[in-house]
Write a structure and sequence with these properties.
This protein is an alpha/beta fold. It has one domain (21-172): Maf protein. The protein has 6 helices and 5 strands, in the order H-E-H-E-H-H-H-E-E-E-H. The chain has a 5-stranded mixed beta sheet. Strand 1 (26-30), helix 2 (36-42) and strand 2 form a beta-alpha-beta unit. Helix 1 runs parallel beside helix 6.
Length: 177
Amino acid sequence: MTRSPAPGAEPAVRVLELLVERGQTVAVAESLTGGLVAAELTAVPGASRSFRGSVTAYATEVKREVLGVDGALLAERGAVDPEVARQMARGVRRLLGADWGVATTGVAGPTGQDGRPVGTVFTAVSGPGGVHGTASLRLGGDRGEIRASSAIAALELLLNELIENARAQDTEQHGGN
Protein backbone atom coordinates (compact mmCIF):
# COMPACT_ATOMS: atom_id res chain seq x y z
CA MET A 1 0.00 0.00 0.00
CA THR A 2 1.43 3.39 -0.96
CA ARG A 3 0.79 6.47 1.08
CA SER A 4 0.08 9.80 -0.50
CA PRO A 5 2.42 12.55 0.64
CA ALA A 6 1.36 14.68 3.59
CA PRO A 7 0.11 18.20 2.81
CA GLY A 8 3.14 20.39 2.17
CA ALA A 9 5.42 17.43 1.52
CA GLU A 10 6.24 18.54 -2.01
CA PRO A 11 7.70 21.91 -0.94
CA ALA A 12 9.57 20.18 1.90
CA VAL A 13 11.11 17.68 -0.52
CA ARG A 14 12.12 20.43 -2.96
CA VAL A 15 13.55 22.62 -0.20
CA LEU A 16 15.70 19.80 1.14
CA GLU A 17 16.87 18.79 -2.35
CA LEU A 18 18.05 22.33 -3.05
CA LEU A 19 19.74 22.65 0.32
CA VAL A 20 21.57 19.34 -0.08
CA GLU A 21 22.71 20.31 -3.61
CA ARG A 22 24.20 23.52 -2.19
CA GLY A 23 25.58 22.05 1.02
CA GLN A 24 23.39 24.42 3.05
CA THR A 25 21.27 24.06 6.16
CA VAL A 26 17.96 25.35 7.52
CA ALA A 27 16.51 26.01 10.97
CA VAL A 28 12.91 26.83 11.86
CA ALA A 29 11.28 29.16 14.42
CA GLU A 30 7.58 28.47 14.86
CA SER A 31 4.84 30.09 16.85
CA LEU A 32 1.29 29.33 15.66
CA THR A 33 2.43 26.27 13.68
CA GLY A 34 3.85 24.69 16.83
CA GLY A 35 6.32 22.42 15.04
CA LEU A 36 4.39 21.64 11.84
CA VAL A 37 7.06 23.12 9.55
CA ALA A 38 9.77 21.10 11.29
CA ALA A 39 7.55 18.00 11.09
CA GLU A 40 7.11 18.43 7.32
CA LEU A 41 10.86 18.76 6.84
CA THR A 42 11.78 15.84 9.07
CA ALA A 43 9.18 13.60 7.40
CA VAL A 44 11.44 13.62 4.34
CA PRO A 45 14.03 10.81 4.38
CA GLY A 46 17.53 12.24 4.67
CA ALA A 47 16.37 15.53 6.17
CA SER A 48 19.22 15.39 8.68
CA ARG A 49 21.65 16.32 5.89
CA SER A 50 20.24 19.87 5.90
CA PHE A 51 17.80 20.36 8.77
CA ARG A 52 19.55 21.78 11.87
CA GLY A 53 16.60 21.97 14.24
CA SER A 54 13.77 24.17 15.40
CA VAL A 55 12.49 26.35 18.21
CA THR A 56 8.80 26.38 19.01
CA ALA A 57 8.57 29.93 20.32
CA TYR A 58 4.92 29.95 21.34
CA ALA A 59 5.36 32.34 24.26
CA THR A 60 6.32 35.96 23.61
CA GLU A 61 9.13 35.69 26.18
CA VAL A 62 10.69 32.84 24.19
CA LYS A 63 10.64 34.98 21.06
CA ARG A 64 12.48 37.69 22.97
CA GLU A 65 14.80 35.68 25.23
CA VAL A 66 15.72 32.75 22.99
CA LEU A 67 15.37 34.11 19.45
CA GLY A 68 16.44 37.69 20.22
CA VAL A 69 13.31 39.44 18.94
CA ASP A 70 13.42 43.08 20.04
CA GLY A 71 11.46 43.55 23.28
CA ALA A 72 10.36 47.08 22.36
CA LEU A 73 8.97 45.79 19.05
CA LEU A 74 7.03 43.07 20.85
CA ALA A 75 5.67 45.57 23.38
CA GLU A 76 4.66 48.05 20.68
CA ARG A 77 3.24 45.75 17.99
CA GLY A 78 2.71 42.39 19.66
CA ALA A 79 3.97 39.00 18.50
CA VAL A 80 1.85 38.88 15.32
CA ASP A 81 3.82 41.22 13.08
CA PRO A 82 5.93 40.90 9.92
CA GLU A 83 9.03 42.37 11.58
CA VAL A 84 8.67 39.91 14.45
CA ALA A 85 8.63 37.09 11.87
CA ARG A 86 11.79 38.50 10.23
CA GLN A 87 13.58 38.73 13.56
CA MET A 88 12.50 35.19 14.49
CA ALA A 89 13.94 33.87 11.20
CA ARG A 90 17.23 35.72 11.75
CA GLY A 91 17.34 34.62 15.38
CA VAL A 92 16.85 30.90 14.75
CA ARG A 93 19.36 31.02 11.91
CA ARG A 94 21.96 32.51 14.25
CA LEU A 95 21.01 30.37 17.27
CA LEU A 96 21.22 27.04 15.42
CA GLY A 97 24.05 27.96 13.04
CA ALA A 98 22.04 27.48 9.85
CA ASP A 99 22.44 29.05 6.42
CA TRP A 100 18.68 29.67 6.23
CA GLY A 101 16.07 30.46 8.86
CA VAL A 102 12.32 30.33 8.40
CA ALA A 103 9.68 31.56 10.85
CA THR A 104 5.93 31.63 11.40
CA THR A 105 3.83 33.83 13.66
CA GLY A 106 0.12 34.48 13.57
CA VAL A 107 -3.34 33.87 14.94
CA ALA A 108 -4.86 30.42 14.51
CA GLY A 109 -7.83 31.08 16.76
CA PRO A 110 -10.28 30.66 18.26
CA THR A 111 -9.99 34.41 19.02
CA GLY A 112 -7.88 37.28 17.73
CA GLN A 113 -4.58 38.37 19.27
CA ASP A 114 -2.69 41.66 19.44
CA GLY A 115 -5.50 43.38 17.55
CA ARG A 116 -5.17 40.89 14.69
CA PRO A 117 -8.08 38.74 13.53
CA VAL A 118 -8.00 34.95 13.33
CA GLY A 119 -6.22 33.87 10.14
CA THR A 120 -3.60 36.66 10.17
CA VAL A 121 -0.23 35.02 9.58
CA PHE A 122 3.28 36.23 8.80
CA THR A 123 6.05 33.98 7.55
CA ALA A 124 9.63 35.04 6.99
CA VAL A 125 12.90 33.72 5.63
CA SER A 126 16.44 34.83 6.42
CA GLY A 127 19.33 33.61 4.31
CA PRO A 128 22.97 34.15 3.47
CA GLY A 129 24.10 37.51 2.18
CA GLY A 130 21.17 39.38 3.68
CA VAL A 131 18.57 37.50 1.65
CA HIS A 132 15.18 37.76 3.26
CA GLY A 133 11.54 37.44 2.35
CA THR A 134 8.27 37.89 4.15
CA ALA A 135 4.72 36.82 3.35
CA SER A 136 1.58 38.30 4.89
CA LEU A 137 -1.36 35.92 4.79
CA ARG A 138 -5.04 36.14 5.59
CA LEU A 139 -6.20 32.54 5.90
CA GLY A 140 -9.63 31.07 6.40
CA GLY A 141 -10.75 27.85 7.97
CA ASP A 142 -10.62 26.37 11.42
CA ARG A 143 -7.59 26.37 13.73
CA GLY A 144 -6.11 23.20 12.23
CA GLU A 145 -6.54 24.41 8.66
CA ILE A 146 -4.94 27.77 9.44
CA ARG A 147 -1.96 26.09 11.10
CA ALA A 148 -1.50 23.58 8.26
CA SER A 149 -1.81 26.27 5.57
CA SER A 150 0.69 28.43 7.45
CA ALA A 151 3.25 25.62 7.53
CA ILE A 152 2.87 25.05 3.80
CA ALA A 153 3.12 28.79 3.12
CA ALA A 154 6.36 28.98 5.12
CA LEU A 155 7.89 26.12 3.12
CA GLU A 156 6.75 27.69 -0.14
CA LEU A 157 8.27 31.04 0.85
CA LEU A 158 11.56 29.31 1.66
CA LEU A 159 11.45 27.38 -1.62
CA ASN A 160 10.85 30.60 -3.59
CA GLU A 161 13.72 32.35 -1.81
CA LEU A 162 16.04 29.41 -2.51
CA ILE A 163 15.10 29.49 -6.21
CA GLU A 164 15.52 33.27 -6.42
CA ASN A 165 18.84 33.08 -4.59
CA ALA A 166 20.09 30.49 -7.08
CA ARG A 167 19.04 32.72 -10.01
CA ALA A 168 20.79 35.72 -8.48
CA GLN A 169 23.99 33.72 -7.93
CA ASP A 170 23.85 32.38 -11.48
CA THR A 171 23.45 35.90 -12.85
CA GLU A 172 26.39 37.11 -10.75
CA GLN A 173 28.61 34.24 -11.88
CA HIS A 174 27.62 34.08 -15.56
CA GLY A 175 26.42 37.60 -16.29
CA GLY A 176 22.87 38.45 -17.08
CA ASN A 177 20.55 41.12 -18.28
